[in-house]
């Protein structure tokens, strides 16, 4: 089983450089395609989809339940993956997904 462990300074002060190291065990960092962005939903409710997934992806949210959902249609064996939800914390005028509440990713398995 592939496992990842992050390590870093824990606390970085303003103007300092953050360095985060991820150590992979049980696999190789060159044997997989890596994380691939599927899409996101912003605080406003507007959605963004990666062009490669747009035709068969839908992301929605239910604010009353504090939940969001990803639907991927017409799945094939190529979609076999570990899927993740994550909060986008990037800020700034040049951040492509600025204001996203959450995004989903897939880590493709070796072919």
TrEMBL record:
InterPro entries to which the protein is assigned, alphabetical: Ig-like_dom, Ig-like_dom_sf, Ig-like_fold, Ig_sub, Ig_V-set, IgHV
Assigned keywords, A-Z: Adaptive immunity, Immunity, Immunoglobulin
PROSITE patterns: IG_LIKE (PS50835)
SMART domains on file: IG (SM00409), IGv (SM00406)
Keyword Transport included in the entry's annotation: no
Gene Ontology biological process terms, A to Z: adaptive immune response
Superkingdom of source: Eukaryota
Residue ranges occupied by any Ig-like domain in the UniProt entry: 1-85
Any GO CC annotation of this UniProt entry: extracellular region
Protein name: Ig-like domain-containing protein
Organism per entry: Equus asinus
Lineage: Eukaryota, Metazoa, Chordata, Craniata, Vertebrata
């Amino acid at each position: 089983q592939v496992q990842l462990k992050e390590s870093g300074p824990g606390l970085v002060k303003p103007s300092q450089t953050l360095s985060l190291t991820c150590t992979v065990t049980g696999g190789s960092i060159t044997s997989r395609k890596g994380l691939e962005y599927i899409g996101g939903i912003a605080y406003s409710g507007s959605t963004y989809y990666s062009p490669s997934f747009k035709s068969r992806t839908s992301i929605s949210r239910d604010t009353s339940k504090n939940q969001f959902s990803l639907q991927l249609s017409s799945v094939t064996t190529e979609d076999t993956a570990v899927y993740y939800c994550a909060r986008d914390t990037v800020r700034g005028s040049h951040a492509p997904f600025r204001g996203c509440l959450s995004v989903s990713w897939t880590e493709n398995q070796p072919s």
